């Protein structure tokens, strides 16, 4: 694959943007901010291109020097060292040149729902929600609970949160799908292993500029918040359900005692779901052509199994198994899975470019 035209294009654009910022002629603050952001994104790519080209030139020079008897040994050593290093440098540049997912830099909204398996599924859903909360804490991200529908005995029917930080969606987007658990429930007297499931959805947080909601297309219903077992949480109609009439999508929130806060949270979640719906529609054609669909984000796809008796976690998309289930559930070892999924997605997209 000849990358030279792309290299030249990046270097030309880098010089162009830098020149524009240096002159500053006729630019408002928004333009300066946009160009500054573009320059900061181009800087590491240019550095990688320059390093790759220099290593390639040095290798050519070392090959020529190998003809000199006095320099042969030293030149051979440098030649083979550069020859071994060059593929890694080229791959680094290739990865940087891959098309960016516009949502990668966004914050994320996570939804975890109990699937098949009754109360055991609800308990597992609660554990997954805590796993992502701890994982966010380890990365210095802010984890803000939006809504929780609990069962009253430690489980959750569904829970959602906003995760704010650097490249949150880029790191978490491969977590969407069905997570299966195999273990002996605490209520199981015969010691039999049960299989349950929970669904995780990771959505980029949508700004108003991404998704505009028209009041005429929304229906709001207010009702009294309910706790587990149908017990009333408060005596006011503070819970809010908002329905997007064109799509039928509905979101409910009862976490706060304030109807205003619940309405704002419900709209935030609705906006994220509509944005993800649009993204999925755009990606559907491309995803259909991909083999492993690492990044398909299909909520119905079984992506991972957590087997507690054997202490293992297996990601079925990349056939990766870690025998450290406690470290994964505490968030400490989840990065090993995340890094492998990111690498697999990059390899898949690089293959598409060839």
Automatic annotation (TrEMBL):
User: What Gene Ontology cellular-component terms does the record carry?
Assistant: cytosol
Region Disordered, residue ranges? 283-308
Places the protein is found: Cytoplasm
**In UniProt terms, what function does this protein have?**
Peptide chain release factor 1 directs the termination of translation in response to the peptide chain termination codons UAG and UAA.
Q: Which family does it belong to?
A: Belongs to the prokaryotic/mitochondrial release factor family.
What HAMAP family does the record tag this protein with?
Answer: Rel_fac_1
Its name, as the record gives it, is Peptide chain release factor 1
Q: Which organism is it from?
A: Paramagnetospirillum caucaseum
């Amino acid at each position: 694959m000849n990358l030279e035209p792309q290299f030249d294009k990046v270097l030309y654009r880098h010089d162009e943007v830098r020149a524009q910022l240096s002159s500053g002629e006729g630019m408002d603050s928004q333009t300066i901010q946009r160009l500054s952001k573009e320059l900061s994104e181009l800087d590491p790519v240019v550095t990688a291109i320059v390093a790759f080209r220099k290593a390639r030139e040095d290798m050519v020079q070392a090959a020529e020097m190998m003809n000199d008897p006095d320099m042969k040994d030293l030149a051979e050593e440098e030649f083979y060292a550069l020859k071994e290093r060059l593929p890694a440098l080229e791959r680094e540049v290739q990865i940087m040149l891959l098309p960016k997912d516009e949502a990668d830099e966004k914050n994320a909204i996570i939804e975890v729902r109990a699937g098949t398996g009754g109360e055991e599924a609800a308990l597992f859903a609660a554990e997954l929600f805590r796993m992502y909360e701890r994982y966010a804490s380890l990365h210095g991200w802010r984890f803000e609970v939006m809504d929780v529908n609990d069962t009253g005995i430690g489980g959750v029917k569904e829970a959602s949160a906003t995760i704010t930080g650097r490249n949150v969606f880029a790191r978490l987007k491969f977590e969407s799908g069905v997570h299966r658990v195999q273990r002996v429930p605490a209520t199981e007297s015969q010691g039999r292993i049960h299989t349950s499931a929970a669904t995780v959805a990771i959505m980029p947080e949508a700004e108003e500029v991404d998704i505009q909601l028209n009041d005429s297309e929304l229906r709001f219903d207010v009702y009294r918040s309910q706790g587990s077992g149908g017990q009333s949480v408060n005596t006011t109609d503070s819970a809010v359900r908002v329905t997007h009439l064109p799509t039928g999508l509905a979101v409910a929130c009862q976490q706060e005692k304030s109807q205003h806060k619940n309405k704002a949270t419900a709209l935030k979640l609705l906006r994220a779901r509509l944005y993800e719906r649009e993204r999925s529609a755009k990606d559907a054609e491309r995803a259909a052509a991909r083999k492993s669909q690492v990044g398909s984000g299909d909520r119905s796809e079984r992506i991972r199994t957590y087997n507690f008796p054997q202490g293992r976690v297996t990601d079925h998309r990349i056939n990766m198994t870690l025998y450290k289930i406690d470290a994964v559930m505490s968030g400490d070892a989840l990065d090993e899975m995340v890094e492998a999924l990111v690498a697999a997605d990059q390899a898949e997209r690089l293959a598409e470019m060839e």
